[in-house]
Amino acid sequence: MTENDGWSRTRTKYIAQNDYQILLDKDQLTQKLKTPTYSAFLTQKPTEEEYLELINDFWWDTTYVAKGLWRDELYFAKFMLDFVIRFHYLQKMVEWYIGVQYDWKVNPNKHGRWFKRYLDEETWIELESTFVGSNIEDNWTALFGMADLFTKLSAKVGQSLGYTYPSKVEEKIREYLLQVRRLDRC
Question: 136 with 163: CB under 8 angstroms?
Answer without folding.
Answer: no
